[in-house]
Write a structure and sequence with these properties.
Number of strands: 10
Oligomer: single chain
Number of domains: 1
Number of helices: 9
Shape: globular
Low-confidence stretches: none
CATH topology: Rossmann fold
CATH class: Alpha Beta
Structural class: alpha/beta
Mean pLDDT: 94
Length: 263
């Protein structure tokens, strides 16, 4: 019993670190700013987006061809736009427009990411696209991994053509509990990205993509997000897919077929 106060003290200290430092464990931004041309892309321009609180966000934009939609892309917790240049190229080569937003702290964007700011910036990016003359029915929201949190929030609040979720999580609390099961993360985590709550409010068609071999966000989470979504909805699983390689296993072909089938 003489060690009990020390054990309690250590546990309280761990909880304090989790509370004040959880964003440090959640976001892994690559702040390097590269131009689309430096990443080997043509037909893609760099745009600076000013936020109401004084930050400058860097976005990459490629106009849609003919009657194709524009993909409003929200990325995961690591990397930057250049790290996803091949995905952007694949989308644009197919004729789709792409608007890729580097969240705060990523790819030359100023500031630091938080859930509240990421969601506000997603809405700002949507309004920017609308200001360019892109109709709401031509905007497809695409959320990758942690970016699925922005996608579901945007899709729940704005009119869009569809919402596509690649490797979505149910919440960051659920992901964290896989490792830190001994902590009350629901009380400690400030940015929780509760997709199960928000996807249920989306009225646009939903497509969920997930790899069966995903070791970061288990495929069961993707299935739960799919189950919580409203019809019409589609689930595409990739038996050999992991967390970040779904395009290597035919994900874009599934996206293209999904969009083509929308009425």
């Amino acid at each position: 019993m003489e060690y009990l106060p020390w054990i309690i003290g250590a546990y309280v200290l761990i909880c304090a670190v989790a509370y004040f430092g959880n964003r440090w464990f959640m976001y892994y931004p690559d702040p390097m700013r590269e131009t689309p041309a430096e990443a080997g892309l043509s037909g893609v321009e760099e745009i600076e987006l000013k936020t109401p609180d004084g930050e400058t966000l860097v976005a990459w934009y490629a106009k849609a061809k003919r009657d194709k939609p524009t993909i409003l892309y929200f990325h995961g917790n690591a990397g930057n736009a250049a790290a996803r240049a091949s995905k952007i190229e694949t989308m644009h080569e197919d004729g789709s427009g792409v608007y890729y937003l580097n969240n705060r702290g990523y790819g030359g964007s100023s500031g630091h990411p938080t859930e509240a700011d990421n969601v506000a910036d997603a809405l700002l990016a949507y309004d920017y696209l609308r200001g360019l003359g892109v109709p709401a029915e031509k905007i497809v929201v695409y959320g990758e991994s942690l970016g699925s949190g922005q996608a579901t929030r945007l899709g729940a609040q704005k009119q869009v053509r569809a919402v596509i979720l690649e490797a979505p999580l149910t919440s960051t609390v659920d992901v964290g509990k896989r490792t830190y099961f001994f902590l009350p993360l629901g009380l400690l985590m400030t940015d929780q990205f509760r997709n199960l709550d928000h996807v249920a409010k989306v009225r646009a068609p939903v497509l969920v993509l997930h790899g069966d071999q995903d070791g970061v966000i288990p495929v069961e989470m993707g299935k739960q997000v799919y189950a919580a979504a409203n019809e019409p909805k589609t689930l595409e699983l990739f038996p050999d897919g992991a967390h970040s390689d779904l395009f290597d296993h035919g994900a874009w072909e599934k996206v293209r077929a999904f969009l083509a089938g929308l009425k």
